[in-house]
Amino acid sequence: MGAYIFSCEVLSSQETDLGWRSALEYDLEVLIPRGGFSYLNETDYALGFGIPYGRWSFDYSFSPHRDFSPVHRMSVSSHF
After folding, report:
1. Nearest CA-CA partner of 48 in 37, 39, 40, 56
2. Where are the beta strands (DSSP E) in the chain?
3. Are 9 and 18 in contact (CB under 8 A)?
4. CA separation for the pair 17, 21 (Å, rounded)
5. Closest Cα to residue 36, out of 78, 73, 76?
6. Do 40 and 58 form a contact (C-beta atoms < 8 A)?
7. Per-residue model confidence as pLDDT tens digits over 13-41
8. First-residue to last-residue Cα distance in the chain
9. Beta strand 3-11 with 19-27: parallel, antiparallel or unpaired?
10. Is the pTM of this model over 0.90?
11. Pairing of strands 32-39, 43-53
C-alpha cells in the first residue's frame, strides 16, 4: 500500500498579502503522482509525477501560466 504526503504552508511578507501553498503526493512505488495548489498574489496549480528507479528518480511537472506559455519541468536525481 502506498503512502500519502501532504504539506501546507502559510506565507506572509510586508510586500504581499497573506498567502498559502499546499501539495499532495501518493507513493505507488512505481509511480508517484503529485499535485499542488498555491494562492499568493494569484491562484496557481501544478501537476506532475515521479518515477523512482533504484537510487535514481525522474520527476516531471506541469504548471499553466496566465501570461506566458505553460511551464514543463523535468529533473533526474540520485539519492545517496
Report:
1. 37
2. 3-11, 19-27, 32-39, 43-53, 56-63, 71-78
3. no
4. 13
5. 73
6. no
7. 777 778 999 999 999 989 999 999 998 76
8. 25
9. antiparallel
10. no
11. antiparallel
